[in-house]
Amino acid sequence: MSFNNNLDTLYRQVIMDHYKNPRNKGSLEDSLTVDMNNPTCGDRIHLTLKIEDGKVADAKFDGEGCSISMASASMMTQAIKGHDVETALKLSEIFSDMMQGKEYDDTIDLGDIEALQGVSKFPARIKCATLSWKAMEKGVHSQGQ
């Protein structure tokens, strides 16, 4: 087995782990709420964000969709929690570049998010992976942050 096959297998395992055991699943009271869907495939996300003093104090999601969209939402909430809004938006920009197969800032540790890198080879799935990130951006921008 080549290195790439091993890496693909590892990435698939990380994605399936987030899909089957989502982090930050649920809803927050008294929080910023964003609902988005992908009409192409039926994925939908209900994202709640608690932003305090310019930081993402907490983030939770609920929804339904394919393994890519739900795993991405799990990874996204995990990645942005505790960071300031600017960092959350920067992570979203990096993720978007990665999904489009562009060069991206690899000085920031993406953690599990890197497992979604292979999605860029499947244009029909990119919207699945970016749905929760777009919801986060919409929510943050609606706050005027």
UniProtKB/TrEMBL annotation:
Domain NIF system FeS cluster assembly NifU N-terminal: 11-128
InterPro entries assigned to the protein according to its UniProt record, in alphabetical order: NIF_FeS_clus_asmbl_NifU_N
Pfam families: NifU_N
Top-level taxon in the UniProt lineage: Bacteria
NCBIfam families found in the cross-reference section: SUF_scaf_2
Protein name: SUF system NifU family Fe-S cluster assembly protein
Organism: Metabacillus flavus
